[in-house]
Amino acid sequence: MGKAIAAPSPLLQLDCIHKHYRHGESGVHALCDIHLQIDPGDMVAVCGPSGHGKTTLLNVAGLLEPANAGSLVIDGVETAGLDESGRTALRLRTIGAVFQCFKLIPVMTARDNVMLPLLLRQRLTRPQHSDAQALAAELLARVGLASHLHYRPARLDHGQSQRVAIARALITQPRLVLADEPTSRLDGSALRMVLELFTACQREQGTAFVITTRDQRQLVRASRTLQLNDGRLGPRQADLARHFPRHAVVHGAVHAARVEA
Ligand code: ADP
Ligand code: MG
Description:
Elements: E1 12-23, E2 26-38, E3 43-47, H1 54-61, E4 69-74, E5 77-78, H2 84-94, E6 95-98, H3 110-122, H4 126-142, H5 158-170, E7 176-180, H6 188-205, E8 208-213, H7 216-219, E9 224-229, E10 232-235, H8 237-243, E11 247-250, E12 253-256
Parallel strand pairs: 3-8, 3-9, 6-7, 7-8
Antiparallel strand pairs: 1-2, 1-4, 4-5, 9-10, 11-12
Helix pairs in contact: 3-4, 3-5
Residues 54-55, 100, 180 line the site of magnesium ion.
């Protein structure tokens, strides 16, 4: 009998995740009972209207905010037992993040912003520092910013800043990229370059992507599309309508609506 081939272990596993924010006397359930598994090489798009929990999902999955309940396992590590330095080490080892509002450091050039995660991770010595510079320059060139290496963020427009944030997320060759609406400010050739870069990372390094988006152009590259409505994650309505025309979708859950033949 042939030997069973072991499935790759998930890079990210969220089970029963809840996130609640207090707003004075009341509160908001930003995430309700989230279950999500991401394997190496996945390209998962999470769609959903503004205010429905996309950023919160990535912040929780990326260890930037704690969940109120549930289990979060990253690269086989149950994160509940980690202290701050353990979380930081796991993040630097595994995750690249593209923030919705970029979070570039204003006093640093585009190239130095991109290099930063690598410097933090490797505590580089001088010769390696030049390697990091070269790698940052190469990534910036791949997103069309070869002539902007020495610009500070104040001199960059939103689309350029977004591309610097994308290059920064990829410089450590992370196995998991969490990207919050990463193409929202891109059009034309910039969009094409970024999508090509994501696809190349996925194909050549097996990088997994979780990408929140309201951008239909992004969805063509996704291997799976999910919908986040009112903090609940499920299949995307448009896909369900196409694949399961006889099912009704309520808040991402599929309820079989029996249709008489
Ligand atoms: P999206 O990214 O889909 O626009 P968010 O995750 O930013 O949605 O927000 C989901 C909900 O959680 C919203 O109602 C928002 O107001 C609330 N929220 C997000 N972050 C915070 C916070 N730090 N404090 C309080 N409420 C928050
Ligand atoms: Mg958001």
